[in-house]
């Protein structure tokens, strides 16, 4: 299926590794121009080389701390200038520390909200003028399965990422007449390099994770990237305001 992304321009945050990179790779493979951002310059350059190899579109890589609103705006504006337009934005950031609800003080919650909610709003606000100017747009947030089903050991993520879903659903009515869709992806466990580093040789921990997944395995990053690319496509033009779990059936929420 041709997703109609050739010639579209995308900005993907947190894309030097993991699920952000998987999204950028899927978009690049469909022929989109892709601007990626993250903090680690070394990983960014590796990611840029990888993306250059999979598609015919242009790729730019910029070192950005997504908590720095001025830097985020400069990155988005530069991407739109470089590509001549911006059509797709993927607000994304790394996760906060793990732990239960009482394990953190208010400053830790404040930091998590800054990283995983306010930065997403800042990226969106920077991108919207460009998407409106293009007359066509896709906003695809990366949250967590905890939006569907809170996880006791991920209290900071449960709190901040739920705000992302609320913000996204609030945007839908504002952007519909501009031809811009807004959706949230809620990933479960995927075999990213980071997770594999954490698990190492701990087969018991790996088995404990997969035991609750009906499909019996963790997702591959490419599984996740493919869903994101579809939401960014022409064919997904009537999907907006949704929170879509990509978790192998892990969450049991009815909605």
Protein described:
The protein has 255 residues and is of the alpha/beta class. Helix content is 46%, strand content 15%. It is built from eight helices and seven strands; from the N terminus they run E-H-E-H-E-H-E-H-E-H-E-H-H-H-E. The protein has helices spanning 18-29, 41-54, 69-83, 106-134, 155-175, 193-199, 203-211, 221-231; strands at residues 9-13, 33-38, 59-63, 88-90, 137-142, 180-187, 242-246. Strands 3-2-1-4-5-6-7 form a seven-stranded parallel sheet, sandwiched between helices. Helix 1 links the parallel strand 1 and strand 2. The longest helix is centred in the middle third of the chain and has 29 residues, at 106-134. It is globular and about 50 Å long. The model has no long low-confidence stretch (mean pLDDT 95).
